[in-house]
Design brief:
The structure is a single chain. The chain is 35% helix and 20% strand. The strands form six sheets. Strands 1, 2, 3, 4, 5, 6, 14, 15, 16, 17, 18 and 19 form a twelve-stranded mixed sheet that branches. Strands 20-22-23-21 form a four-stranded mixed sheet. Strands 7-12-13 form a three-stranded antiparallel sheet, with helices on one face. It is globular and about 70 Å long. The model has no long low-confidence stretch (mean pLDDT 93).
């Protein structure tokens, strides 16, 4: 049987005008700024004007990712469509895809099969220009910083201690480490430099955590771009850059409204990576979804040890959000990979490998349920090769933890395949939760890291490198020690070693660098070999993407 590709499915659906979707969501026309027929930005005044009680917030997260895929975004969209099928008033709040992964290995991030947000081509490519605005604001700050040094350096900035990098929304390893400012005195000040991918920019995190334009400006002004010769921090506010940066970001701060294949309203806004930033869509979009629907369904990047942890410990803490329920997505295929099965053999029944990989799922479930105190359900994203014996083993092991397991078939059936999950989520939302964070803010920086490693990753402790120890002491002296922590680590393991699959124990996490994102309001803890500028693979997805004479795009997935 020949399956349609994601883009072929998306192009086979007749989309409804975005004005109809806004009306369905209860958003009056005065708040809607249309970007063509099928996309719109929603004015920030909607949040101030609407006095409705907030709806239930449901987080969708997943097991530790593998090349077999988990389908977290697909499940999030299918769950929302499933809730709509059973008559619930629902909205989705997702992150925007980054061009780097779209053209690289991972592909797009608009869902898959019959659970997608559309227009998927636009969402996966330029969309409404938010990422371009973020890149422009980031690079304006970089230009003003280097210009300040060139024009006399009144702030006494040490060029060797500049921490701010330029960015581009593309996987481009050639730009990781560069030397710039060459060509003589009139062409700048020579120094070693480098680029980040746009989603790793602190401005992306700032945009996603800001509550208003005033809050955005305040956060932008606090961004630290480097240090003086006396080791004092220098901020964007001291460079007088924050006003112009906010002007570039004025429209990007407004959430983007689109729709699922089944016409469920969806916000797609912001896109920080969860292995290097906090991995969640914008606070404003989440709050709008909660204000306009009885159920707001959102997701956080990578496994629950990354995206969900940061959603709960950073985003919920800053935004005052309390989730009503959490869905942990898993696949039998991915769990077998955690049990040691190569990707080429995942189609064969293997209960032994599944049993070996299941502790990964159970640890994520236990964290959400026991560490954070939230009602939890497991969604098994069903594949045709899954056997009844394998599915029953997953159900049985989750039941031992007191957690319900529901089969999800949203990829092939859309909302109809998410009805059972939707019913389970509705039931879960009525259960009492006892939401708490995994660490307290008033702990010293090192103790916060250690508590997170022991409670969530289940490691035995941390090893702090001498450079990181010096950085922690400096940040403490500067008064940043009460901020939450944002750990940058591999997404492929609970540990900082990507080869440790499943549910490793007795490992130590090595803290290599610690820096502050003062605008975003968190401390970034770098472990393992984390790159803020990925590269393209040997055969990039970009090689398969094309556009016909009549403007129809093909090859996106």
């Amino acid at each position: 049987m020949a399956y349609l590709s994601d883009i072929e499915i998306a192009q086979s659906i007749t989309m409804r005008p975005i004005s109809e979707i806004a009306e369905k969501a209860g958003i009056e026309d005065k708040y809607v700024e249309q970007y063509g027929k099928y996309k719109a930005k929603i004015d920030l005044s909607l949040l101030k004007d609407k006095k409705n009680p907030d709806g239930k917030l449901v987080l969708v997260t997943a097991i530790t990712p593998t090349p077999a895929g988990e389908g977290k975004t697909t499940t999030t969209i299918g769950l929302a469509d499933g809730l709509a099928k059973i008559g619930k008033n629902v909205m989705v709040a997702l992150r925007e895809p980054s061009l780097g992964p779209v053209f690289g290995v991972k592909g797009g991030a608009a869902g898959g099969g019959y659970a997608q947000v559309v227009p998927m081509e636009d969402i996966n490519l330029h969309f409404t220009g938010d990422f371009h605005a973020i890149g422009a604001a980031n690079n304006l700050l970089a230009a003003m910083l280097d210009n300040h040094i060139y024009q006399g350096n009144a702030l006494n900035i040490d060029p060797r201690r500049i921490t701010w990098k330029r960015c581009v929304d593309m996987n481009d390893r050639q730009l990781r480490f560069v030397t710039d400012g060459l060509g003589g005195r009139v062409n700048g000040v020579p120094r070693e430099d480098g680029y980040d991918i746009t989603v790793a920019s602190e401005i992306m995190a700032v945009l996603c955590l800001a509550n208003s334009i005033a809050d955005l400006k305040d956060r932008l002004s606090r961004i630290i771009v480097g240090y003086t010769y006396k080791e004092e921090p220098v901020t964007a506010g001291q460079l007088n850059a924050h006003g112009a940066m906010a002007a570039l970001l004025k429209d990007a701060l407004k959430p983007n409204l689109v729709q699922t294949l089944e016409g469920t309203p969806a916000f797609v806004h912001g896109g920080p990576f969860a292995n290097i930033a906090h991995g969640c869509n914008s606070v404003i979009a989440t709050k709008m979804a909660m204000k306009m629907a009885d159920y707001a369904i959102t997701e956080a990047g990578f496994g629950a040890d990354l995206g969900a942890e940061k959603f709960l410990d950073i985003k919920c803490r800053y935004a005052g959000l309390t989730p009503s329920a959490v869905v942990v997505v898993a696949t039998v295929r991915a769990l077998k990979m955690h049990g040691g099965v190569p990707k080429t053999e995942l189609g064969e029944e293997n209960l032994e490998a599944l049993a070996k990989g299941l502790p990964n799922l159970l640890r994520h479930v236990s964290n959400i349920h026991d560490v954070y105190g939230l009602p939890t359900v497991v969604a098994v994203n069903r594949f045709p090769t899954d056997t009844e014996a394998e599915l029953n083993l997953v159900i049985e092991k989750c039941r031992e933890l007191g957690v319900n397991t529901v089969l999800s078939e949203v990829w092939g059936k859309g909302g109809d395949g998410g009805v059972e999950l939707a019913k389970a989520v509705v039931e879960l939302c009525e259960q009492p939760g006892d939401f708490q964070f995994s660490y307290e803010l008033d702990l010293p920086i090192a103790e916060k890291i250690e508590k997170l490693v022991k409670r969530v990753y289940r490691g035995s402790g941390i090893s702090i490198m001498p450079q990181a120890k010096k950085q922690i002491d400096q940040l403490t002296a500067l008064g940043f020690d009460k901020l939450p922590i944002c750990v940058a680590k591999t997404q492929y393991s609970f540990s900082d070693d990507p080869t440790k699959l499943g549910a490793p124990e007795d490992f130590t996490v090595t803290v290599k660098n610690v820096k502050v994102s003062a605008g975003a309001g968190f401390i970034v803890v770098l472990t393992g070999d984390i790159m803020t500028m990925p590269g393209l693979p040997k055969v990039p997805a970009a090689e398969r993407i094309d556009v016909s004479d009549d403007g129809v795009i093909s090859g996106l997935f």
